[in-house]
TrEMBL record:
It comes from the Eukaryota. PROSITE patterns: FAD_FR (PS51384). This is cytochrome-b5 reductase. Its EC number is 1.6.2.2. FAD binds at residues 88-90, 105, 107, 113-114, 156. It comes from Leishmania braziliensis MHOM/BR/75/M2904.
């Protein structure tokens, strides 16, 4: 089963969102509306980890294609017991050609209103959705190499890009450095392994655990500059490669610096952390 998640960003000067006409050019009958919220029924739920679930929601019909641009998100909404609207973005990581459904991978953090609400849903319940919002342009084959550094649920926007890029005709090579606390926290592990086997030489995942089990053969501890040098494409000022980063605030601060949240929508902010120290440029790094 494939999945979805959230990102609201711009890359190398790209606009925050594509217009409705640009997004809907993907198909005459879009799966979602940018003008109004529509209700979608939950048809399947399964555990992804001890605190993460996958949710599958039905589209209008079994023949409705998802047809959203790669690297785009949707907005979910519900009304709480006090009558207040709660909204949060999530990014579908299904293949854009999938029909009849969309999937979400959601981790329930403490005090997360939307996460708690989604975890309370039963098959047959519904959620309101609006979108999609295209976050940045990245066409298949645009880069010869893509490096990805993800922490925890920061994997989800990466997986959407990996899944769709590998299934499109191009020669792009992707390397993913993925950090978690324990082996049980790894999300979409089976899917990542299957893609690596299906596309040898084009996709590789390097796992890093801060609390590894015995006989662990991957990286241990927190991601370091040495790990980045060993797994990521080197600094490229010609625009032929890029490095994407997504994770919690402390993770982002150490790897590339946090985004600038002083404005709305937030900007990329200056490049800092390990990637700056290793000589990468702001134009070649994208922060989710």
């Amino acid at each position: 089963m494939k999945a979805f998640i959230a990102s609201v960003v711009g890359f190398a000067g790209a606009s925050m969102y594509q217009s409705g006409s640009e997004v809907q050019a993907w198909g005459s009958k879009p799966a979602f509306s940018q003008d109004k919220f529509q209700s979608y029924k939950l048809i399947h739920v399964e555990d992804e980890s001890h605190n993460t679930k996958r949710f599958r929601f039905a589209l209008a019909s079994s023949k409705t294609r998802l047809k959203i641009p790669v690297a785009s998100c949707i907005t979910l909404r519900y009304t709480d017991a006090q009558g207040r609207e709660v909204m949060r973005p999530y990014t579908p990581i299904n293949l854009v050609e999938d029909e009849g459904h969309f999937d979400l991978v959601v981790k329930c953090y403490p005090n997360s209103k939307m996460g708690s609400h989604l975890f309370s849903l039963k098959v047959g319940d519904s959620i309101d959705v609006k979108g999609p919002w295209h976050t940045f342009d990245m066409k298949p084959g645009q880069y010869s190499k893509i490096g990805m550094i993800a922490g925890g649920t920061g994997l989800t926007p990466m997986f959407q890009i990996v899944n769709n890029t590998l299934h499109a005709p191009n020669k792009t090579k992707i390397s993913l450095l993925y950090s978690n606390r324990t082996e049980g926290d790894i999300l979409l592990g089976k899917e990542l392994g299957a893609l690596a086997k299906e596309y040898p030489g084009k996709f590789v995942t390097y796992h890093c655990l801060t609390t590894p089990p015995r006989r662990w053969t991957g990286y241990s501890g927190h991601i370091s500059k040495a790990m980045i040098q060993e797994t990521m494409p080197g600094p490229d000022h010609r625009g032929d490669s890029c490095v994407l980063v997504c994770g919690p605030p402390p993770f982002m601060k150490s790897i590339c610096g946090e985004k600038d949240y002083s404005c709305s929508p937030p900007k990329q902010g200056p490049l800092e952390g390990y990637l700056k120290e290793l000589g990468y440029s702001e134009s070649g790094v994208f922060k989710f």
